[in-house]
Amino acid sequence: MSKTRIELLEETLVRVAAVFKTLPEPCQPHLGNALLNLALGRLVEEHGQMATAQLLARVQDSLSMNECPATSEAAIDCFRLDS
Are 40 and 52 a contacting pair, CB within 8 Å? Predict the structure, then answer.
């Protein structure tokens, strides 16, 4: 049975987290920004500038309304704003 895209993503995230723990301490504070830059570049490539801008606007709304998750393991649910 082949793995779903979500299962593959979850496995990748576990691997990335393990690699982060092995990096030198001075590099670790910059990892979040580096990941964000990679993710934004990929979003723009796959969905275009307008869709990416709309997503980021929804994330901004979620954060400004204190809808941000308390931990890094929880996802921001932008669709919650629709209700």
Answer: yes
